[in-house]
Amino acid sequence: xxxxxxxxxxxxxxxxxxxxxxxxxxxxxxxxxxxxxxxxxxxxxxxxxxxxxxxxxxxxxxxxxxxxxxxxxxxxxxxxxxxxxxxxxxxxxxxxxxxxxxxxxxxxxxxxxxxxxxxxxxxxxxxxxxxxxxxxxxxxxxxxxxxxxxxxxxxxxxxxxxxxxxxxxxxxxxxxxxxxxxxxxxxxxxxxxxxxxxxxxxxxxxxxxxxxxxxxxxxxxxxxxxxxxxxxxxxxxxxxxxxxxxxxxxxxxxxxxxxxxxxxxxxxxxxxxxxxxx
Length: 278
Prior knowledge:
Largest sheet: none
Number of strands: 0
Order of helices and strands: HHHHHHHHHHHHH
Strand content: under 5%
Number of helices: 13
């Protein structure tokens, strides 16, 4: 085991991927709890499709992929908020509109240009595709996400649990909803290289759902979600290296397995607790 870890971390590209993946996992875990509780967890999936569209256009025009994806995904996050605030279009419909349109644009550009090799790494993730420049950019964005989340933790907590009451007390809920959307967009961007645009949303949802099976308080759920996300990424990355499987898919499978385990624990605990009351 230790020999395998020593061999694995002897490669620079794995060290870069590990650093980026750890930061992505932490960011996704922090935001995942809020998005799941607000019933807006599919925003990650919607923005990841937008990311694919942006990357396809950038690859077709020989532009820097991440530099194009960042402003496009952030703009899409703001647009989703505006559409969701319209009483005629609910959140799910807004996500469907944005994601399907972006995916269609991406497919058309790929078809016209014939570029597909680089896009595969964005679709499904690839640790080999993570360059030093990508790692630095992702690290900076991840630190920004973590700091902003920590600074506005109390207000994000208030908006998450009772947006109506928070608005009545004078809290600018629209501002903090925008902050949540912005942080989610940045998390999608920094996770696309490792997890892929089709799998990054799973990293947002699974740790939050798993931790909610056994934790009941917001802070404890966030802490548990962060720990689970980091551990799942590490195990998934080691599994990927030892079995020569795709990193993103391996991490998602580990997260899914953890969710099943926690789900079983919750069921068993609930039955035992019910029997003790009888």
